[in-house]
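debug: dumping io for the single-chain case to check the tokenizer round-trip. Nothing else runs in this session.
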Amino acid sequence: MNKVVNDQADGLRSLMAQHAGNRAPQVIAVVGSGPQVGASSVVLNLAAALVQLGQDVLLLDEHGGLPPGAINGAAAWADVITRRLPLEAAASKLSCGAWWLPASGLDAATAESDARSAFHGQAILVDAQLDGSGALSALARQADDVVVVLRPQAASITAAYSCIKQLHYAHALQQLRIMINGAADGPDAQRVAHNLAATGSRYLGLTVQPAGCIGLDARLAQAQRLKLSVVEAFQTSVAAVDFRRIAAQLQQWPRRMAAQPQLPPLAQESSWTAQLLPSY
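debug: decoded output
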């Protein structure tokens, strides 16, 4: 089954490469709103889903972790962007078919270099690490979209709003997306997304759009134990289906436009916490 899917994916990638022309890759920065929300797992599985949909994908890791199938060698994104090494020589090819490179500790000039110029595939996913003030790196600031990952629990929802607020004020963001990971109840997750969107609009003048919801799925942990993404290990599982659906939608997201002037807050924030939590 996996061989059939991989063969189909290889064929799709070849077809897409023929029609991609000179279009620059889409860049998505994925941010965890706090610890234990599963942001790195989200990035890996989105990469796997995009590969299955025929995309050539590069995963840049600012956390210094090591995903399944990666080789902990000396090469890094800095070697590629400065042209010391070609991407194929520097990067690890993960079992899911995506390229992977560590991208932490870049100097300012290297981090600001155009990531799109060094990769000729269709998508670059940045597993982004926020700094001490909650700001993005220069590399992650190149993204067409910033996606904040959260869990559908009260503490994570509150942390997500704080993360969104910090990103907004650090970069004058007028739009970002949220993804809810590990949702046991779909309607509940939709209410969380709606409340966050309404609160961001009211208090920050910010458009918060849902990027999708990943259902609670024990197969995710099982896939991690097997050192695989759930998308390749258990293709019909709840989470795998969700990741493929989000990956298909992600390809249709509009590319980033020039930033608009920042709007002033529209109201005081004294009661925002209560508004974030879903009402029953």
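debug: round-trip ok. Residues 1-5, 9-21, 257-268 have pLDDT under 50 and may be disordered.
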